[in-house]
Amino acid sequence: MISQAAKAQPTHFAVLTLFPEMVESAAMHSIFKRALQAGLVQLSCIDIRNFSQNKHRQADDYPYGGGAGMVMKAQPIYDAYKHALGAMGTANARVVYLTPAGRCFNQAIAWELAAHKNLVLLAGRYEGVDERVIEEIVTDEISIGDYVLTGGELAALVVIDAVARLLPGVVGKAASLAEESFTTGLLEYPQYTRPEEVLGRKVPEILLSGDHGKIATWRSETALQRTQQRRPDLLRN
């Protein structure tokens, strides 16, 4: 029998990039690879250089006004975007530009994006992207933290991984999503596995008691304590 997840339209991720092999190679592992093979997700890595109108496949140029570095040109990006829409079979999509200027990515945004079947991720490079194409096609500007990378490919992979695992059927036990860090607004409680003693440290007795009510209480309390100690900002928010 085909599951409901398998019947559903797969979520299509399209990455616009100058280095498609970076995304493709990283995607072919673990849970995301299995999701691809099961038809739960689709991935298109689109080389922006293929849409350059320059015989040298130039996708960047010097910035107007002067300054160091190069800026990615609007036309190749726009044409790559239109190609992505064609590959998805849609007239529009959620378009995420990975940029330090964007809102900081978190679990709530991952759930927000997971509600969309067509996601285009624009991986910038150099000094950034011509503002005009951002104004024309981008719906979301997202940062994965307050630091600078050499390009947006790694950031795109972070977003894809976080979103894909929320989709039906991708993670083996959907219940595990409900208890993990940030889902409840807290960090996750400590986890232990066999053997009962490692390096002179024992598993907390409560976890061996078989009393599920007490275990649930312990987990809630330790999750709160851990959040207070390590991420008090989550409680303030």
Key terms:
single chain; 237 residues; alpha/beta; Alpha/beta knot; Trp Operon Repressor, Chain A; 2 domains; two-stranded antiparallel sheet; 10 helices; 18% strand; disordered N terminus
CATH superfamily of the largest domain: SPOUT methyltransferase, trefoil knot domain
Low-confidence stretches: 1-6
Order of helices and strands: HEHHEEEHEHEHEHHEEHH
What is the arithmetic mean of pLDDT? 92
Adjacency order of strands in the biggest sheet = 2-1-6-5-7
Query: What shape does the CA trace take?
Result: elongated
Largest sheet entry: 5 strands, parallel
Terminal CA distance reads: 44 Å
Number of strands: 9
**CATH domain fold name of the largest domain:** Alpha/beta knot
From the 3D coordinates, which CATH architecture of the largest domain would you assign?
Answer: 3-Layer(aba) Sandwich
Total of domains: 2
| Helical residues, percent | 25-40%
CATH class of the largest domain: Alpha Beta
Number of discrete helical segments:
10
- Radius of gyration using CA atoms only: 22 Å
